[in-house]
Amino acid sequence: MDNTKKLLEIKDLTIHYVTVDGTVRAVENLDLSINAGETLGLVGETGAGKTTSVKAVMKILPVPPAKVISGQILFKGEDILKKSKKEMRKIRGAKISMIFQDPMTSLNPVMTVSEQIEEAIGLHNPKKSRREIKKLSDEMLETVGIKAERSMDYPHQFSGGMKQRVVIAMALACNPELIIADEPTTALDVTIQAQVLDLMKKLKDKFNTSMIMITHDLGVVAEICDYVAIMYSGEVVEHGTREHIFHNALHPYTKGLFACIPNLYEDEKRLKPIKGLTPDPVNLPKGCKFHPRCPYAMEICSKESPKTAMMDEGHMVKCHLYKEGMADGK
Amino acid sequence: MLKYILSRIMMMIPVMLGVTIIVFSLLYITPGDPVDALLGDEATPEAAEQLREELGLNGGYFQRYFTYISKLLQGDMGICYSTKQPVSDRIAQTFPNTMKLAGLSLLVSVTVGMFFGTIAAVKQNSIFDNIAMFLAMIGNAMPNFWQGLLLMLLFALQWKILPASGFSSWKHMILPAITIGTSSAAAIARMTRSSMLEVIRQDYMDTARAKGQSEFIITIKHALKNALIPVATTIGMQLGRQLGGAVLTESIFAVPGVGKMMVDAIKARNYPVVQGGVLMVALVFSIVNLLVDIFYAYIDPRIRSRFE
Amino acid sequence: MATQSENIEIIEVKHRTQLQEIWRRYKKNTRAVIGLIMLLILIFSALFASVLTPYDPLETNYSLRLEPPNAEHPFGTDELGRDILTRILYGTRISLTVGLIAVSISSITGCTLGSIAGYYGGRIDNIIMRFIDVIMAIPGILLNISIVAALGTGLQNVMIAIGISSIPGYCRIMRASILSLRGQEFIEASKAAGAKDFHIITTHIWPNAMAPILIQATLRIGGAILACASMSFIGLGIVPPTPEWGAMLSTGRDFLRDAPHLTAFPGMAIMFSVLAMNLMGDGLRDALDPKLKD
Fold this sequence. Notes:
Chain A is of the alpha/beta class. Chain A has helices spanning 50-58, 85-91, 103-106, 113-124, 130-143, 160-172, 190-207, 218-224, 242-247, 252-259; strands at residues 6-19, 22-35, 39-43, 66-75, 78-79, 96-99, 178-182, 210-215, 227-232, 235-241, 308-312, 315-318. Chain C contains 11 helices and no strands.
């Protein structure tokens, strides 16, 4: 992989939440990268640190309690963590934008949808007149499938799926290079989920935007992602192409995730959930964080945390079961 | 919107009617005969009887209430026993003073309260927040008549910077306005803070940040407008508190307002004045709450759309 | 039957841990604990006023008029030579009594009215709520003095007046709780099982609506103490020689220039008690409803 092509590269990122009840190790030694035009799926359970990681990319983490302990976030080769507030404001919305999980709460209830889209456009196009901005906003609404005559309506007048379309319009308004979508379909009805996902896929291709898609739904990953990173307790435990993950999952946790999905073709009596609970982030287990729940746990797992092993071109895993150079899939 | 305002005004009518019933009933059961108070002990029974007829004091409860309300509808609030003026004249003389005082203190308390409440929320748990909330706590607990006396002691009696009583210049308004406004400022600051804290944790704040908007504009444009909805209720309630607080404050600073007029009237068993004063205050208070509701509908489209 | 008794046990256990949980959260809040300590001081003063001070709150002594604070009379003496600290300690009894009884009157009446309005709805709801609107249209202190003017001054009437004027808060809270609970499944289930309305209200709805009522009541005790003092201050509450803080302030006013201690200390006592109740109320709110905590 050519380093210069990388749009976003997260290196060794560690973020803690310092609270009175203790330090929450939300993200630890996270490495991730995404190339222009690609879609990366970030998969993991609630509390795995997915949202924290991407909010760090946007630099909108609440500080305090959040604290970036170490690491770099390189966007087109420049470290975002070193950028000033003012420089960062020029990146947010214009170069990187974000779609939030719950469209019910991510729109301001006392502003019309148009005002909210116009705000995004106006901030990054200070020379445009109000009429031009309004026109762009209407176009954007039409692009996501909302009639322009509804632009003066307020969020509460739209359904959940429609609101998410508005949020998407807002995120795409300035034609960003990277879109971060934080579980954009989780809060929606199943039928609407497919429509919204479809729309995102189409628009992503149309604008040739890169995308980080946070989800815990492997179905979404299969639909839209080129690459997949599996997160567990603040770190990436497996990273590879969609094919790697779906056809040749290595990490016991990834395997566990797939075992949770009912298979239409096999007559399964019951699903096999991963035993145990996500570890308490204040009190993470020593060694590999997954070992208390891992069916293949060995002695070493509770003592040393595993190193990243590159198993195949672009397929890496963090597990003591695998050593670099071993044939893929044992 | 117009339909909404009209429906709210219609709702005010039974409430005001209810206020007249309460005020009338309370004074109906009040012991003592106003005729004796008016004429003195040496009045002839005939003269007393005639006056009773004139004042609508004869007959049973319903008859008297009916007389009272029909006179009221014609703008006749009765005669002040002590000055022999129509009550409406006395209210016209005193009410502007009370409104000036309440208006000034409301203005000050809204400005101070919202300013400190907003900063306290944005800088939550900072020293500023702690000090502001400590002051608000004290301001809320301090009896305003006591505060009034202390202010008078310091500023008027000790340092002689401001006049202690009367209402002839703007200087006279300062101490009473501070006295009335302090607890309101405290209440508004606390409400603004908690409402802002609620709002700044909403997802749409992050949405605005993700657009690249600056924190200052986010606070003003996105947060404050949403936070204002519950704060508006508090402000409306505060005006009631200030009109009520005027009763005490006006007595302390000898301000010729409705509050002082009513206290004096109660002590002198001057019932028509009490009735008129309470009615007037209730009317103004209801109108303010109506304005607050209209303001709600103005800033919150969710409420507005319920009436469209 | 067996399963039923099992259920009851489970509920009991849960209830206890819930109380412990509330207490645990309450304890963690320094300001709330300070409020509780302040309230304990007030209760202690009220109960042991006669032991805490050698003086009588009513006995006058003209040779000791208007003494400034000194070793024998830490808060000084008043215009009739009575020890001010003693009068303040005895005043605690009156203030706490007014606070407690006025709040009891208003919370019981308010909750009952609110329950009826919320549960039955329709015309009766309309009548009750219009009545509440009327009370709310008159600022509290004005309603208080109007009621006292009609009934006459004195402790009992002051408590009634304050009690009546604070009914609306409870009524509205209770009604809102009931409206939000009424549609819920456990109420429907209870109805389907043939429970009487009274039973449903008292066993299912009240416990669930308790938290906001308790918070309101705590905060309103402070308000009642303040209202009582205000009324006495303008001579329409509790009248001298009863050692009531507001009445003491009212007398102190005449000696403001020469003997400000007559004014200073009763005012502080009022502020102390109102502050105690407000701190406790805020603490309770945070402990009972962690969602609302900042």
